[in-house]
């Protein structure tokens, strides 16, 4: 396993747990706005410079505590069997997005899609979102900077009960609650 980071402390912890850190990620790929594809393309390029032949890559997010090896295997199979550029985890929204509302600065309400205001929620199309757990991709797709979410990507659909991205303290608290619930 390769860990890409710009942080020496993270690199050291990763090494302690058996990861390899063959390069340090440059600062221009280490801010809060850099996407996954450029980071992985950099890692592929660096590994190729070290003489590694790479056909497929799996990016696993450290903020996804409930990832399962079976999900990774399914993602790899979807990538290979469909000759896809990418495969990734997703889950459904808990309520139809067509009924989403927005609030103004004055806290007044309007609908994003007012044409669905009177449509029964069970009659609306189910929508999904990226679960932020993993991204399989071909080296060629990453290096070409192809977008992740296209017709040549495939999704591993996960139950909402196993999806928790950790970006905030509230996310961490929910992850702990879910972990305890999963132990029962």
**Net shape:** globular
Strand content: 15-25%
Which value, in Å, is the CA radius of gyration? 19 Å
* Class based on secondary structure composition and strand pairing: alpha+beta
The biggest beta sheet reads: 4 strands, mixed
Strand order of the largest sheet: 1-5-2-6
- Count of helical stretches: 5
Low-confidence stretches: none
On the 0 to 100 scale, the average pLDDT is 94
Q: Provide the succession of SSEs.
A: HHEHEEEEHEH
What is the distance, rounded to the nearest whole angstrom, between the alpha carbons of the first and last residues? Answer: 31 Å
Helix content: 25-40%
Written description of the protein model:
- The structure is a single chain.
- The two termini are 31 Å apart.
- The chain has 184 residues and is an alpha+beta fold.
- The strands form two sheets. It has a four-stranded mixed sheet, sandwiched between helices.
- The protein is globular.
- The mean pLDDT is 94.
- It has five helices and six strands, in the order ααβαββββαβα.
Blueprint (SSEs and pairs):
Blueprint lengths: L7 H9 L19 H14 L6 E5 L8 H13 L4 E7 L8 E3 L5 E3 L16 E11 H5 L9 E5 L11 H15 L1
Parallel strand pairs: 2-6
Antiparallel strand pairs: 1-5, 2-5, 3-4
Features of the shown structure:
184 residues; alpha+beta; four-stranded mixed β-sheet; two-stranded antiparallel ribbon
